[in-house]
Amino acid sequence: MLATDTAVAAALHDVHKVYRKQVRALDGVTLTFAAGTFTAVMGPSGSGKSTLLQCAAGLDRIDSGSIEVAGVRVDRLNETQRTLLRRDRIGFVFQSFNLLPSLTAAQNVELPLRLAGRRPSSGQVKEALAAVGLADRARHRPTELSGGQQQRVAIARALITRPAVLFADEPTGALDSTTSREVLALLRGIRQTIIMVTHDPVAAASADRVVFLADGRVVGELHSPDVDTVAARLAHLEA
Ligand SMILES: Nc1ncnc2c1ncn2[C@@H]1O[C@H](COP(=O)(O)OP(=O)(O)OP(=O)(O)O)[C@@H](O)[C@H]1O
């Protein structure tokens, strides 16, 4: 069931995505993401993690099946509609932060609102930076911030539009282990629907649930995961 359950932030049903008529990147994926839950997606290289994220976030089209995000059938939208959905209802955090270097932290955070033609109040931006522990860094440029601080600015930027789902692609991939832990604690604490692709069992163990992919299929799930169990399951899939 997809349509009316308000507790569901995102749902994929029997999703297929084939590249070049032969690579089955997603091969019948069915997954539900309850509102407010934090899910990690893991699997061997080439198992379809990035494809899942790109398709669920409306960045790429699927060949069959359905995808619903925030009550909207993403698979039925045209390109312009998908762009608007991404702008208004979806947040993104990337491994490489993707902040604009010439803008201050505050200007980076308010950018999504400006792009949507909305005038950010200074209180709103201050609040967003305070929520990620960077109230005192509003005027700093990305080069004046540590990697962890830059990622926290990126998280504040992703959340300023109050998205239905936050998609995170290896958000701790460029961070050392201490900084990673801080960013993961922040993600865990925001009580937001998060779908995060990661190779790191420590990062995955911060989530409420880990979904494992292999050859474009869901091959297992762990709830309230611990690092050792996640690492063992991943090693088994990679063997
Ligand atoms: N644009 C593309 N054109 C053709 N094949 C693609 C394309 N993108 C991905 N693939 C193939 O689809 C499959 C799934 O790729 P995907 O990038 O989703 O895997 P992944 O699990 O994210 O891998 P990794 O952990 O290495 O990033 C792979 O076999 C990949 O080679």
From TrEMBL:
The keyword Nucleotidyltransferase is annotated on this UniProt entry: no
ABC transporter domain residues are 10-239
Q: Name one GO cellular component term.
A: plasma membrane
Annotated Gene Ontology MF terms? ATP binding; ATP hydrolysis activity; transmembrane transporter activity
Write out the entry's keywords from A to Z: ATP-binding, Nucleotide-binding, Transport
Asked whether the UniProt record includes Transport among its keywords, one would answer yes
**PANTHER family the UniProt entry points to:** ABC TRANSPORTER RELATED, IMPORT ATP-BINDING PROTEIN
Protein's name in the database: ABC transporter ATP-binding protein
Top-down, what is the taxonomic lineage of the species of origin?
Answer: Bacteria, Bacillati, Actinomycetota, Actinomycetes, Cryptosporangiales
